[in-house]
Amino acid sequence: MSDSAPSARSRDSIGNTLFVAIGVSLICSVLVASAAVMLKPRQLKNEEEFRQRIILDVAGLYEPGADIATLYAAIEPRMVDLASGEQAPVYLVMDGNEIEQVILPVEGAGLWAMMYGFLAVENDGQTARGLRFYDHGETPGLGDQIDKPAWREQWQGKRLFGPDGEPQITIVKGYAPDDSDFEIDGLAGATLTARGVTSLVQYWIGENGYGPYLQQLDDKESR
Ligand SMILES: Cc1cc2nc3c(=O)[nH]c(=O)nc-3n(C[C@H](O)[C@H](O)[C@H](O)COP(=O)(O)O)c2cc1C
Fold first, then answer.
1. Is there an atom of ligand 1 within 6 Å of 171 CB?
2. Cα gap 121→129, rounded to integer Å
3. End of a domain among 55, 73, 91?
């Protein structure tokens, strides 16, 4: 009995405790770091596949269960010049050699955070085909009504520009008139998110965004 007492004390010593704690922390951090490194390629692949799925969805080409890479073969990414001199990506939905629609990345401030999405535009550069956000911080049940399929469907066929060529598409407060070319129903209890969406869409189709590019598509169509 007198033999075991000193060894029990040394097992519980401060040095021993620190040694075990540091050892366990080191092993855990090596495990976590290795997992992060090993999972990175899969994470990037999933992110890319998610982006492709959203682009297909806004273009009306997404089929649940279908192979994303196969569907995405119809999409051609391009870089285009903005009025600011910067370059920005667009995603062309091709039908053979013809552009069928153009998908524009759009982003802007919501009530709580930045909202990121894609606006699909017909090949006339004038008519909306769809709007889909994939990242935002709006409140469930209020601002997140922007994700509701019934609300999103209204974008199809709306005119983006007024007769003067200025962006005119607008989310109104309340219901848009049935025959309205430019208006989209408001979001009940979420007028601030709706305003954010109107301004970001108007910005990106406007003269400082993709406006000149869309105009040039329209000129080609009407040639
Ligand atoms: C907790 C909380 C979360 C809210 N989230 C949103 C939101 O995501 N988007 C939004 O526009 N308004 C949100 N609101 C409401 C706004 O403060 C504001 O009242 C509303 O946008 C006005 O819209 P209405 O005129 O349609 O009622 C939230 C309010 C509260 C208290």
1. no
2. 5
3. 73
Confidence of residue 223 (pLDDT cuts 50, 70, 90): very low
Q: Name the one residue in this structure whose structure tokens are 């391009």.
A: 78
Q: Is 193 in the pocket of ligand 1 (CB under 6 A)?
A: yes
Domain around 133: 75-222
Among 24, 41, 73, which residue terminates a domain?
Answer: 73
Claim to verify: residue 202 and residue 130 sit in the same structural domain: yes
Give residue-wise pLDDT tens across range 42-81.
Answer: 999 999 999 999 999 999 999 999 999 999 999 999 999 9
In this prediction the pTM is: 0.84
CA 175, 208, 135, 95: dihedral to nearest 10 degrees? 90
Helical residues (DSSP H) of the chain, grouped into ranges: 4-11, 14-58, 68-72, 149-153, 191-205, 211-222
Protein residue with least CA distance to atom 14, ligand 1: 190
Give residue 50's identity as a one-letter amino acid code: F
Q: Are residues 216 and 135 in the same domain?
A: yes
Residue with the bigger pLDDT between 11 and 177: it is: 177
Centroid of ligand 1 to alpha carbon of 141 (angstroms): 10
Together in a domain, 69 and 159: no
Identity of the residue numbered 156: Q
Are both 139 and 172 inside the same structural domain? yes
- Closest residue by Cα to residue 104 from 124, 119, 93, 82: 119
Q: Which residues contact 85 (CB under 8 A, 6 or more apart)?
A: none
